[in-house]
Specification:
The protein contains five helices and nine strands, in the order E-E-E-E-H-E-H-E-H-E-E-H-E-H. It is an alpha/beta fold and about 200 residues long. The strands form two sheets. Strands 3-5-4-6-7-8-9 form a seven-stranded mixed beta sheet, sandwiched between helices. Strand 1 and strand 2 (about 5) form a beta hairpin. Helix 1 packs across helix 5 and helix 2 (about 75-90) crosses helix 3 (about 100-110). The protein is globular and about 40 Å long. The relative contact order is 0.15.
């Protein structure tokens, strides 16, 4: 698809008519993050199994996407482009956004003032590495899923951030690290539990 720095490489899975359309954002490009990251893959699969249309994409400079690392600013623009494309394809469907780690920052920042996106999902958000203060006052439903043994992002920092947002639901997973090794089923269950 077309992005602000050129073409963005994507994986798109079409779901059922009227079901939500979901953009999933991957972790930090400078630390090996791609749309093929295992957590991102399983997140996308969880949404697909619910009949959702799902778009994964590589940020600029990753894989076959054009451009180069944009200091977090360009990646926010990439996320906007992905949402614009998916919305154009599914203008009659609810629009959701999900991110993993750095992907939470880029995706949530891109969607802060975009009311087309109705529901948000943050898996192991990179709180402490980036300021998420821009989310203050956001009233959309937000699911925050994180491991209590996260070795990269301080679990208490994630918990405090989630508690500061009145519409956030927090789902800590016992024994899970940042990449949810051995806890992927619990991550997927938390992602969509009680959501139709």
């Amino acid at each position: 698809i077309s992005g602000p720095a050129g073409r963005l490489q994507t994986i798109y899975s079409q779901g059922e008519d009227g079901r939500p359309a979901v953009v999933v954002c991957h972790p930090h490009p400078q630390h090996g993050g791609t749309m093929n990251n295992k957590v991102v893959y399983w997140m996308a699969r969880a949404f697909s199994k619910r009949g959702c249309s799902v778009l994964r994409f590589n940020f600029r400079g990753v894989g076959e996407s054009d451009g180069s690392w944009g200091d977090g600013v360009g990646e926010v623009e990439d996320a906007r482009a992905a949402v614009d494309w998916l919305h154009a394809e599914h203008s009659g469907s609810p629009l959701w956004l999900a991110g993993f780690s750095f992907g939470c920052y880029a995706g949530l920042r891109a969607m802060r003032d975009d009311k087309r996106v109705q529901r948000l999902f943050a898996v192991a958000p990179a709180v402490g590495f980036y300021s998420f203060s821009f989310m203050a006052g956001d009233e959309r439903p937000l699911r925050v899923i994180y491991g209590l043994d996260d070795e990269i992002v301080e679990p208490d920092a994630i918990r405090h951030w989630a508690e500061s947002l009145p519409t956030a639901s927090s789902f800590p997973i016992e024994g899970a690290g940042h990449f949810f090794a051995g806890r992927m089923e619990e991550m997927m269950a938390a992602l969509l539990g009680q959501i139709n």
